[in-house]
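Hydrogenase expression/formation protein HypE (Kitasatospora aureofaciens), 356 aa
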Amino acid sequence: MADTLQTAPDFSGWSCPLPLRDHPVVVMGHGGGGALSAELVRHLFLPAYGGEQLEGLGDSAQLTLGGARLAFSTDSYVVRPLFFPGGSIGDLAVNGTVNDLAMSGAVPAYLSCAFVLEEGTELATVGAVAQAVGAAARAAGVTVATGDTKVVDAGHGDGVYLTTAGIGLIPDGVDIRPQRARPGDVIMVSGPIGQHGIAIMSVREGLEFGAEVTSDTAALGSLVQAMLAVTPELHVLRDPTRGGLAASLNEIAAASGTGVVLEDRAVPVPEAVANACAFLGLDPLYVANEGRLVAFVPREHAEAVLAAMRAHPDGRGTVIVGECVADHPGVVVARTGLGGTRIVDLPLGEQLPRIC
């Protein structure tokens, strides 16, 4: 018992809107990509694992092996329901891992895929998910090279959970990571936000918002390569999944020690998403996306990169939404339509749990 107590996490130094030292149990917000997730990673997992590779906390780790620069990422998918407008847990898992690799500028190459199946799940359902995995991998130009299958007791899962990992090669001269954001960078978003989270919520809760909202899930490797063909001097790329655009911008600002100014009216929010968020009391900036990226681009390259993104099928809706500044380091602010400003903080947890 003494050894166990000595190696347990020390909660005394933790700081969080919900002090974890007073609530030492897992809550749904720990998986939401917000402040609770960050606290858990920084104070529990990083000290336990050690190693400088983890300190970057990017979408994927950037490694050197045998002279090659690799991006390596892993993720688990527990989305409910398994099938939703615009996609399924199968293509979501492939696209999510491909995108994590692409956000390092890597060319995704190989994936692993592990299935955790609940006893009693129909094999037709498992087969449909597997087919979606294969189709998404082929569309993204990657190979599922290995995998695993486990079964848990009935009542201890939601049919199918997936865990994927991926590797890809980072081209020479490419250095994309959150720490490289610089004052003067132009901030772009590759299309309308909030569609994935609202698509999941509409099916899960049986809600209608005047028009069907479909998930934006897509593999963005090809879009990133089109951007790099313009210039390798992209500073930061991020796919704003859990916690939405707000979480991604806050993480980049904190990692780089810069400020972010967001133009509220420039952020592309589809009418159906805006209506759904108004009805549900949500802020679209915090709603998850699965087929969008946010880019910090040096101002001298912004016009050419913007044109290349708009010429690509996955970037037709790209818009400039703000800039990186030297003021208020680590803080994201939004200019409102009325001429004022508001702080866009890191979310505590996830407004819509289990959306990926």
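Residues 123-140 form the longest helix (18 residues). The domain at 59-172 is CATH 3.30.1330.10 (60s Ribosomal Protein L30; Chain: A;). ok done for today
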